[in-house]
């Protein structure tokens, strides 16, 4: 009787773990196999912000950019993308005196800024 | 009186070694130690962790081995979706991985007004240091494997909590309910699951210290208490509040039952708070805002909401519809009514902790500078998880003697 209860509870634990993996956390065998590889599951982790955050980080890396800053409007009304860019682009750091400027693509920027790259919602400028 | 005082001391010793190595990793970071020493410590930690799975001594706990391994596999096979996990906790680890310095934020950034970095940098960093050490050994950072060290962090308190149950059915029941109520919080990169499990362990250890008479056992319990209190306070800001709650409850209960204060307990508890107090000293002395309590007129906000019927009703609604909290309360009350005469001291102690921490959470909601509804929707469920798990664990704990006899009769 006791053994049966133990096995029953153990099976319930396995069912719960399956539920956590499959339903709650979107488990993928592909992620597991590649879990120790660089740049694994970036798009799925970033969720809806991936459309901007991934290309911005990739652009920074491809051009060897070390520092960037945000346009004031983004700073005043920060959203998830703003924080995700800071987090995901790291070790590219946000600094106030950087010449690389990230702005919303509807924003006007100074005349001395040159457009380098665009994503769905953001523009990257060089404002030397 | 407590009838069954079963404790598996081997498990407690194992939990204390593992916990010590986790804290030692943080201490190495806090002293800016050589990387090679951090690596050696990490390999020792990993070896100790693996020892549980290969040692014949722990073969009886095959189900725990499988569950922990599955948690690890799920952790390594799932994306880090939660924004809080990514932006607040794993980002801290990423900064540590690149900077190799726990205090780099004090001079590395030239940041504008928005307090995102303040929030990230001011958080306690123990789990982040372990992730960073692991990533430094691997050689790069990615979105997946650094968070797997959280499974190692939750292991000592899980081991500690089951070491008080002789009956496998009760261990399995606890493991199932723990997974049922908070399983995903252990592996998604958040701290709520970690502090919940350390909170329960800390309450149990405090209670055990108060009733243990054998000096050698008491010394080991004090050592584990020091380790668990330190870890709890260094995982999340709420951890320090939990320790203060346990301290107050302990003083209160000791005063009622013993008519004296346990100064050894108080002294060790205060020693264990030194790392977090030092951390907070650095944060405050560098004028970094570390909590929303520092935003605007907190007292005014609390008083305003306390007198606003609409806000009170909103909180009541969220409490009443928090099914995990309601269910765990019903279970606990059932066991309290059944075992009240046998375990008065324990029941009073757990209830005092519950009431104090519950009050702190409610005050926290009243104090939030965000819209109350938004705050409750974002965090009301996981904020109560420590209390939910506490009520569930101690319900099982209360029943362990009675249940044990019934199973023996029926089998």
Helical residue percent of chain A?
Answer: 40-55%
Strand % of chain B is: under 5%
Distance between the termini of chain B: 27 Å
Adjacency order of strands in the biggest sheet of chain A: 2-1-3-5-4
SS element count, helices of chain B: 20
Oligomeric nature of the chains: heterodimer
Please report the total strand number of chain B as a whole number.
0
Q: Show unreliable segments of chain B.
A: none
Structural class of chain B: mainly alpha
- Counting structural domains of chain A, the number is 2
What gross morphology of chain A would you assign? elongated
Low-confidence region ranges of chain A: none
What does this structure look like?
The complex is a heterodimer of chains A (128) and B (411). Helices cover 48% and strands 16% of the residues of chain A. Chain A has 128 residues and is α/β, with parallel strands linked by helices. In chain A, helix 4 packs parallel to helix 6 (80-89). The mean pLDDT of chain A is 88. Chain B is built from 20 helices and no strands. Chain B is mostly helical and 411 residues long. Chains A and B meet through helix 1, helix 2, helix 3, helix 6 and strand 2 of A and helix 3, helix 4 and helix 9 of B.
Task: Describe this protein with a few key phrases.
heterodimer, A: 128 residues, alpha/beta, 2 domains, five-stranded mixed β-sheet, 16% strand, elongated, B: 411 residues, mainly alpha, 0% strand, globular
């Amino acid at each position: 009787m006791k053994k049966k209860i133990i096995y029953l509870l153990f099976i319930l634990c396995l069912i719960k773990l399956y539920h956590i993996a499959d339903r709650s956390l979107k488990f993928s065998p592909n992620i597991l196999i590649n879990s120790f590889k660089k740049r694994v599951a970036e798009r799925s982790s970033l969720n809806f912000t991936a459309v901007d955050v991934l290309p911005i980080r990739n652009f920074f890396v491809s051009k060897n950019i070390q520092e960037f800053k945000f346009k004031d409007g983004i700073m005043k009304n920060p959203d998830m993308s703003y924080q995700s860019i800071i987090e995901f682009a790291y070790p590219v750091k946000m600094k106030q005196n950087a010449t690389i400027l990230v702005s919303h693509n509807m924003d006007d920027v100074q005349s001395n800024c040159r457009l380098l790259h665009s994503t769905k919602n953001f523009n990257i400028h060089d404002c030397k | 009186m407590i009838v069954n005082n079963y404790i598996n001391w081997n498990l407690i010793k194992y939990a204390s070694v593992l916990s010590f190595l986790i804290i030692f990793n943080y201490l190495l970071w806090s002293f800016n130690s050589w990387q090679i020493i951090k690596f050696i410590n990490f390999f020792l930690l990993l070896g100790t962790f693996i020892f549980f799975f290969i040692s014949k001594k722990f073969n009886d706990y095959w189900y725990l081995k499988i569950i922990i391994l599955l948690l690890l596999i799920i952790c390594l096979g799932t994306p880090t979706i939660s924004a809080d996990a990514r932006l607040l906790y794993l980002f801290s680890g990423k900064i540590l991985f690149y900077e190799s310095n726990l205090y780099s934020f004090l001079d590395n950034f030239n940041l504008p007004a928005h307090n995102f970095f303040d929030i990230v940098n001011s958080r306690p960093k123990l789990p982040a240091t372990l992730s960073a050490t692991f990533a430094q050994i691997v050689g790069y950072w990615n979105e997946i494997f650094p968070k797997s060290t959280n499974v190692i962090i939750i292991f000592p308190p899980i081991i500690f909590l089951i070491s008080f149950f002789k009956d496998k059915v009760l261990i399995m029941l606890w493991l199932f309910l723990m997974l049922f109520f908070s399983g995903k919080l252990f592996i998604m990169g958040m701290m709520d699951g970690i502090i919940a499990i350390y909170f329960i362990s800390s309450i149990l250890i405090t209670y055990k210290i108060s009733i243990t008479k054998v000096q050698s056992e008491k010394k080991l319990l004090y050592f584990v208490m020091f380790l668990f209190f330190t870890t709890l306070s260094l995982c999340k800001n709420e951890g320090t509040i939990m320790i203060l709650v346990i301290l107050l409850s302990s003083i209160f209960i000791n005063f009622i039952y013993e008519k004296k204060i346990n100064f050894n307990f108080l002294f060790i508890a205060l020693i264990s708070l030194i790392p977090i107090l030092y951390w907070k000293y650095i944060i405050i002395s560098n004028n970094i805002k570390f909590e929303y309590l520092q935003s605007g007129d907190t007292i005014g906000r609390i008083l305003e909401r306390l007198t606003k019927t609409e806000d009170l009703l909103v909180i009541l609604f969220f409490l009443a519809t928090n099914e995990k909290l309601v269910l765990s309360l019903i279970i606990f009350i059932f066991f309290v009514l059944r075992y009240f005469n046998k375990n008065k001291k324990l029941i009073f102690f757990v209830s005092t902790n519950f009431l104090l921490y519950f009050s702190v959470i409610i005050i926290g909601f009243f104090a939030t500078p965000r819209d109350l509804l938004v705050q409750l929707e974002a965090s009301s469920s996981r904020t109560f998880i420590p209390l939910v798990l506490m009520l569930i664990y101690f319900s099982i704990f209360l029943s362990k003697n009675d249940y044990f006899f019934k199973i023996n009769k029926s089998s």
